[in-house]
C-alpha cells in the first residue's frame, strides 16, 4: 500500500556552504569563524577542516546533474558570507556571486528549485574579531549582506531563508564553545541569540526592498521536541526551561514580537536583557511566508539530582553547557535505537513539532528544512553502498509528516539532510549523513540505496506503507 503526499509537495535535499564547497582560499574568499576554529588544536576531530570538503565549488555541475538524476524538486543550499563579502563589510565580491549565479542557473536549467539560506554559521572572521554575534553591529552587517545577495539572485530564487538554526550559532558557539567561534560566555550567548534574532528581522526587511513581489521569506529553526522524563512538577519545569531556551527564545520575538517572561526570569541572574532596545522585537517580528523546522531527535529532561547523569543533550561533550540559566536541568539519552551520532530515532518528535506550530502559528506554512541521520556507511565489495537503516529512518519520519498533514498541519515540503556526506562540524569527516556516499580520498560520489529510495519518492510523491 502507498500513501500520496499532496500535489505540489516539495521533495528536496540540503547542504551548507562550509560543509561542501571547499575552495576555502579561492576567488577572494577570506576565513570564516569555522576556518579559524578548525585550526585550533583539539577543536575538530582528527584536525579536519573544510578547506576541500566535498569540493562542491569545483564539482557544482556534476552535483546538479546528480540531483536531477535523483529527481529532486529542490536544493536547499547556503551562501558563504566570506565568499560573497570577504570582510563582512562593503561591496560584494563579483567572483563570489558568480559561483552562486552559476549554481542557481544550473539548478533552474535542470528543473530544480533553488532554496537559498543566507547564514549557515560561517561568520566572516573579521566580524568575529570585532565582537561577533554578541555585538549589535553584526546584525546590521548581516542586513547589508542580505541586500547584496538579494540584489544579485532575487530574480531567480523564490524562497529565501535568513538564518539556519540560530540556537546552534548562539549557544553551541558562544556558551558551550563546541562550535565556532568556541567561546564560553553565558551572557554573550544570550546577547548573540538576540542579535541573531535582530539580524533575521533586519535581513528580512532588507530583502523585501530588493526582491520581487512573489519572493517568499523564511527562517530555519531547530526547535526542541522536549520531553519531561516524568510527570513530576520538577521534571515538567525542567522541560519548560529548555523549551524557553531552545525554542521560544526565537519564536517568541519572531512570531509574537516579545521574549517569553519565563525566559527572562530564568536568565535574570545572567543578564538584565538591556541589550534589547527600542523597537527591536517589532523588527524581529517581520512577516514570514514559511517557517522551516529542522528535526533530528527529541530532548529528554528532568530536574537535576545530587548525582546527575552526564549531559546527554546531543550537543557534544564539552565541559561548558549550552543551556544558560538551566543549571537545575538534567539531560537524558532517550530510549530505543540510536544513530551514529547517538541521537534517538523517534519520529514522534517531528510530528509533535509540526502540529505544535500548526496550532501556534495558524496560517503559516511549514517546511521540514532538515531531517536525516548519520550511519557508519561503507561500500560493499561491488562498490555499492547499502544503508537500510537510513531508509527506515527516512520512511518513519516521512510517515510522521503524513500524519501531521492528516491532522491539519500545512506542511509544504521536506528536505533530506544531507545530499552528500560532508564535513560534520566538530566531528570532522567521521559522521556520514549523506544520501550520496563521498570517497574523501578521490571525492567520487556514489548514490546510496537511500538515495535511490528517496528518488522514487520524489518522482512519484508516494510513500509505501507496510
Short description:
The protein has about 475 residues and is of the alpha/beta class. The chain is about 40% helix and about 15% strand.
What can you see in these coordinates?
There is one protein chain. The protein is of the alpha/beta class. It has helices at 17-20, 33-38, 60-69, 81-84, 94-109, 125-129, 137-153, 166-174, 186-210, 233-256, 261-266, 280-284, 348-360, 388-406, 449-460, and strands spanning 2-4, 10-14, 74-78, 113-119, 159-164, 216-221, 226-228, 290-294, 299-303, 329-332, 366-371, 411-417, 436-438, 445-447, 462-464. Strands 2-3-4-5-6-8-11-12 form an eight-stranded parallel β-barrel, surrounded by four helices. A three-stranded mixed β-sheet has the order 7-9-10, covered by helices on one side. A hairpin with a 6-residue loop joins strand 13 (436-438) and strand 14 (445-447). Helix 7 (137-153) runs parallel beside helix 9, helix 9 (186-210) runs parallel beside helix 10 (233-256) and helix 13 (348-360) packs parallel to helix 14. It is globular and about 55 Å long. It starts with a strand and ends with a strand. The mean pLDDT is 97. This is Beta-glucosidase.
Amino acid at each position: 500500500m502507498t500513501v500520496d503526499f499532496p500535489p505540489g509537495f516539495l521533495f528536496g535535499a540540503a547542504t551548507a556552504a562550509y560543509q561542501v564547497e571547499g575552495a576555502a582560499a579561492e576567488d577572494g574568499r577570506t576565513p570564516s569563524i569555522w576556518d579559524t576554529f578548525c585550526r585550533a588544536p583539539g577543536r575538530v576531530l582528527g584536525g579536519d577542516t573544510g578547506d576541500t570538503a566535498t569540493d562542491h565549488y569545483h564539482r557544482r555541475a556534476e552535483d546538479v546533474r546528480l540531483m536531477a538524476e535523483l529527481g529532486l524538486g529542490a536544493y536547499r543550499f547556503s551562501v558563504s558570507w566570506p565568499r560573497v563579502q570577504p570582510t563582512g563589510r562593503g561591496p560584494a565580491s563579483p567572483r563570489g556571486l558568480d559561483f552562486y549565479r552559476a549554481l542557481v542557473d544550473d539548478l533552474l536549467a535542470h528543473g530544480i528549485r533553488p532554496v537559498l539560506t543566507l547564514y549557515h554559521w560561517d561568520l566572516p572572521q573579521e566580524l568575529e574579531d570585532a565582537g561577533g554575534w554578541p555585538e549589535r553591529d553584526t546584525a546590521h552587517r548581516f542586513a547589508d549582506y542580505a541586500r547584496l545577495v538579494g540584489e544579485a539572485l532575487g530574480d531567480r530564487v523564490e524562497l529565501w531563508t535568513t538564518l539556519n538554526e540560530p540556537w546552534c550559532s548562539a549557544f553551541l558557539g558562544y556558551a558551550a564553545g563546541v562550535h565556532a567561534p568556541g567561546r564560553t560566555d553565558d551572557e554573550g550567548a544570550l546577547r548573540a541569540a538576540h542579535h541573531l534574532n535582530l539580524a533575521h528581522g533586519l535581513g528580512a526587511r532588507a530583502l523585501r526592498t530588493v526582491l520581487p513581489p512573489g519572493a517568499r521569506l523564511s527562517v530555519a529553526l531547530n526547535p526542541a521536541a522536549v520531553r519531561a522524563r516524568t510527570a513530576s512538577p520538577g521534571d515538567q519545569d525542567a522541560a519548560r526551561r529548555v523549551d524557553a531556551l531552545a525554542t521560544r527564545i526565537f519564536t517568541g520575538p519572531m512570531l509574537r514580537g516579545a521574549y517569553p517572561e519565563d525566559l527572562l526570569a530564568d536568565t535574570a541572574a545572567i543578564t538584565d536583557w538591556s541589550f534589547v532596545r527600542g523597537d527591536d522585537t517589532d523588527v524581529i517580528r517581520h512577516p514570514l511566508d514559511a517557517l522551516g523546522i529542522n528535526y533530528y531527535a527529541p530532548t529528554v529532561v528532568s530536574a537535576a539530582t545530587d548525582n546527575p547523569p552526564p549531559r546527554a543533550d546531543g550537543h557534544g561533550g564539552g565541559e561548558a553547557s549550552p543551556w544558560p540559566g538551566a543549571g537545575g536541568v538534567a539531560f537524558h539519552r532517550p530510549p530505543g535505537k540510536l544513530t551514529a551520532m547517538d541521537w534517538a530515532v523517534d519520529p514522534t518528535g517531528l510530528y509533535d513539532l509540526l502540529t505544535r506550530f500548526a496550532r501556534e502559528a495558524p496560517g503559516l506554512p511549514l517546511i521540514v528544512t532538515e531531517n536525516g541521520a548519520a550511519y557508519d556507511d561503507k561500500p560493499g565489495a561491488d562498490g555499492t553502498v547499502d544503508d537500510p537503516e537510513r531508509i527506515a529512518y527516512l520512511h518513519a519520519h516521512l510517515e510522521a509528516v503524513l500524519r501531521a498533514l492528516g491532522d491539519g498541519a500545512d506542511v509544504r515540503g521536506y528536505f533530506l539532510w544531507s545530499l552528500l556526506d560532508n564535513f560534520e562540524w566538530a566531528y570532522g569527516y567521521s559522521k556520514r549523513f549523506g544520501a550520496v556516499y563521498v570517497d574523501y580520498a578521490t571525492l567520487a560520489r556514489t548514490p546510496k540505496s537511500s538515495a535511490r529510495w528517496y528518488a522514487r519518492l520524489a518522482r512519484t510523491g508516494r510513500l509505501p506503507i507496510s
